């Protein structure tokens, strides 16, 4: 197995005439540029959160609002969804015989279900905070929290919508080159969201719970 | 055909290796905060260190970025973006914490 194949699992477009390999690679590189600009956006929200950490205005504090159990559950769900997307990428690289792709669609459906479970858990957390009066308007700390963490949640929502769109495309267009490249991009996006979540559970939740 | 099946198996194994090391690293972070075997400052440093290692694991096993020649372009883009982010984040933190100590 060459390093090039390992680089982007599924980027073997030799049998698909309409897009050449260099075109596919530059399409993926372009998506990396978008991901890194998104990472800069998140990094600055993290920096804002860091400077606002003490600005609780005698309101709710990180230690009183964060729950280690639900942060752990969200982490496990998102990590597992990243793994199941990896399995979907492999199912795409080694497609089933015939036009229908039951394994690929199955792993995409598992990923979608885990993504929606993650959003449900996170929404439940936010509702609990709102019930405690921990609204974004309460203090600088909460404004920074509600700018950073729900933005990641919105990204997961966008990823879920994109997953549904790609599942429909797999059913309708089967695995043509455009569908493959878009599933590769979606995979990068999904794994990237997992990296951002690693930063969120370490910097936001765990830091807030250490006394 | 067997060759293809072997390749597939080794790729699945790579994902399983990445997934299990990511799980272990997250579990270590949460365990440190749950049981608190160390002082708060040490715990915080360890949690941040583990997070950095876990991000590298994700990039290596899930995003397929390595130091091999074929992914140099992606690697350079990521390292440059990381440099920009380090400058902006550390600059923001230094200036605003400095302002706060001056106002206290």
What does this structure look like?
The complex is a heterodimer of chains A (211) and B (104). Chain A is an all-alpha fold. Chain A contains 7 helices and no strands. Chain A has helices spanning 3-7, 21-52, 62-65, 68-93, 102-131, 140-173, 177-209. Chain B is built from 3 helices and no strands. Classes of the chains: A mainly alpha (211), B mainly alpha (104).
Could you give a short description of this structure?
Chain A is mainly α. Chain A contains seven helices and no strands. In chain A, 78% of the residues lie in helices and 0% in strands.
CATH architecture of chain A: Up-down Bundle
Integer-rounded radius of gyration of chain A: 20 Å
Helical content band of chain B: over 70%
Shape of chain B, please?
A: flat
Stretches of chain B where pLDDT falls below 50 for ≥5 residues?
none
User: What is the CATH C-level name of chain A?
Assistant: Mainly Alpha
Sequence of secondary-structure elements of chain A: HHHHHHH
Tell me the distance between the termini of chain A. 49 Å
The overall average pLDDT of chain B, rounded, is 90
Largest interface: A-B, 53 and 52 residues
Largest sheet of chain A: none
Q: Per DSSP, what share of the residues of chain A sits in E-state strands of 2 or more residues? A: under 5%
Q: How many β-strand runs of chain A?
A: 0
